[in-house]
């Protein structure tokens, strides 16, 4: 798959806009999920995920072919979401609660279709609770926790995505795990 | 650092797969006698399990289409830039060709203002704008005449090129009538009269100059 993506990126660089749609198709769910977990609501997640792809397209010439495209794309998405969180107005959270109802709808739909294996967390309420607790972590821990346990990147890859030293990634993941442990221990 | 916080630090190393043998034994030793730390590790593992069990979320339907519709249209300048970048040899060739053409035009214009030009002067007779290769004269090598006509009574041992002029039959000019025989050209005769021919001639001579092995 990496090879196919590499090929597509080369075509995009040559000016073939249509080749970019395959790239979007391939990464859309991952990047959307990343933004959704980072931002906590569907509305902002869609905006930022879209923006991430557009930025990637505009700056495609600055992407170094020797590196992994996914790493680069995740970095763009992560920076955008962290920027967005910083720029939120203090009264934003009132809106977020209203928008939370969209999330409820989405969870109810999902629950009826594809979750059920015993190792999956059962119940809409629990899913919502975990999601809520992730969204309340400080952003610098949140991004690492999401990348490590939801998107399953290695610590080394996370260090590349966030462009921070491996040691810092480890310190933050420890703190993030501890913070979540305290929040989720009663579940 | 007390024993508990030390063992908690080890737990995190363990969760990251960074424990060495001695640290592993140290952690195990502590866990066996400490229920609090056992519970702590259990909670950490459960936290991770909960995170990993969250369901995957999909982008909204039409997400990809929306992205594609929001992409900026490629600017023309950008297209040219890309094209130049991807075809450096073609660009170089085009630039080179433009300069070469320019050079030829200036050549042509200069030449047409000039008077008669002949490549070899020895033993040739020049009458007005007519160059004559006299009888019994052998021109050794190529002969080029610009802006004039040429009459050959003798022999040219090479190619003859006439630019802006023509090869005249000797009898038509000097009235020696049928007595005069047309001279010999032991090579090719080329008459170039128009710009296009001139260009073609230049290009050919340029390339034969570039590619000739001798």
TrEMBL record, chain A:
Coiled-coil zones: none
The keyword Ribonucleoprotein belongs to this UniProt entry's keyword annotation: no
SUPFAM superfamilies named among the record's database cross-references: Sigma2 domain of RNA polymerase sigma factors, Sigma3 and sigma4 domains of RNA polymerase sigma factors
Residue intervals of the RNA polymerase sigma factor 70 region 4 type domain: 128-180
Cited InterPro entries: RNA_pol_sigma-70-like (IPR039425), RNA_pol_sigma-70_dom (IPR014284), RNA_pol_sigma-W_bacilli (IPR014294), RNA_pol_sigma70_r2 (IPR007627), RNA_pol_sigma70_r4_t2 (IPR013249), RNA_pol_sigma_r2 (IPR013325), RNA_pol_sigma_r3/r4-like (IPR013324), WH-like_DNA-bd_sf (IPR036388)
Listed Gene3D superfamilies: 1.10.1740.10, Winged helix-like DNA-binding domain superfamily/Winged helix DNA-binding domain (1.10.10.10)
A GO MF term: sigma factor activity
GO terms of biological process kind: DNA-templated transcription initiation
Keywords, ordered alphabetically: Sigma factor, Transcription, Transcription regulation
Source domain of life: Bacteria
Pfam families the UniProt entry points to: Sigma70_r2, Sigma70_r4_2
Positions of the RNA polymerase sigma-70 region domain: 25-89
Protein family according to the UniProt entry: Belongs to the sigma-70 factor family. ECF subfamily.
Protein name: RNA polymerase sigma factor SigW
Organism listed in the record: Oceanobacillus arenosus
From TrEMBL, chain B:
Family annotation (Gene3D superfamilies): Anti-sigma factor, zinc-finger domain
Keyword flag Membrane: yes
The keyword Transmembrane helix belongs to this UniProt entry's keyword annotation: yes
Record keywords, A-Z: Membrane, Transmembrane, Transmembrane helix
Taxonomy, superkingdom: Bacteria
Domain (Putative zinc-finger) ranges: 7-38
Family, similarity comment: Belongs to the zinc-associated anti-sigma factor (ZAS) superfamily. Anti-sigma-W factor family.
Annotated protein name in UniProt: Anti-sigma-W factor RsiW
């Amino acid at each position: 798959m990496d090879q196919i993506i590499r090929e597509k990126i080369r075509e995009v660089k040559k000016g073939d806009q249509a080749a970019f749609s395959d790239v979007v198709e391939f990464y859309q769910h991952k990047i959307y999920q990343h933004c959704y977990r980072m931002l906590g609501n569907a509305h902002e997640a869609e905006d930022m995920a879209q923006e991430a792809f557009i930025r990637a397209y505009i700056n495609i010439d600055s992407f170094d072919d020797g590196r992994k495209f996914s790493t680069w794309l995740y970095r763009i998405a992560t920076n955008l979401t962290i920027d967005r969180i910083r720029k939120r107005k203090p009264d934003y959270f009132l809106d977020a609660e209203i928008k939370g109802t969209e999330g409820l709808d989405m969870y109810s739909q999902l629950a009826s279709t594809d979750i059920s294996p015993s190792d999956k967390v059962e119940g809409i309420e629990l899913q919502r609770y975990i999601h809520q607790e992730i969204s309340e972590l400080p952003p610098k821990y949140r991004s690492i926790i999401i990348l490590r346990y939801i998107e399953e990147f290695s610590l080394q890859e996370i260090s590349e995505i966030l462009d921070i030293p491996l040691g810092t990634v480890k310190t933050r993941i420890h703190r993030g795990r501890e913070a979540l442990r305290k929040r989720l221990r009663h579940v | 650092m007390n024993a508990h916080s030390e063992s908690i630090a080890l737990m995190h190393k363990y969760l990251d797969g960074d424990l060495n043998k001695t640290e592993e034994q140290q952690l195990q030793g502590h866990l066996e006698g400490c229920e609090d730390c056992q519970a702590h590790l259990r909670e950490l593992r459960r936290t991770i399990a909960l995170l990993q069990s969250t369901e995957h979320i999909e982008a909204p339907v039409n997400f990809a289409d929306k992205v594609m519709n929001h992409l900026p249209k490629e600017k023309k300048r950008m297209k040219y830039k890309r094209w130049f970048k991807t075809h450096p040899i073609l660009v170089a060739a085009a630039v080179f060709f433009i300069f070469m053409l320019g050079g030829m035009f200036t050549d042509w214009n200069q030449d047409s203002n000039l008077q008669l030009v002949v490549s070899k002067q020895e033993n040739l007779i020049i009458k007005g704008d007519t160059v004559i290769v006299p009888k019994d004269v052998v021109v050794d090598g190529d002969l080029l005449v610009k802006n004039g006509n040429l009459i050959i009574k003798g022999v040219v041992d090479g190619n003859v090129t006439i630019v802006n002029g023509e090869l005249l039959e000797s009898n038509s000019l000097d009235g020696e009538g049928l007595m005069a025989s047309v001279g010999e050209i032991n090579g090719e005769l080329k008459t170039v009269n128009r710009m296009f021919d001139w260009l073609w001639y230049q290009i050919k001579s340029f390339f034969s100059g570039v590619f000739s092995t001798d």
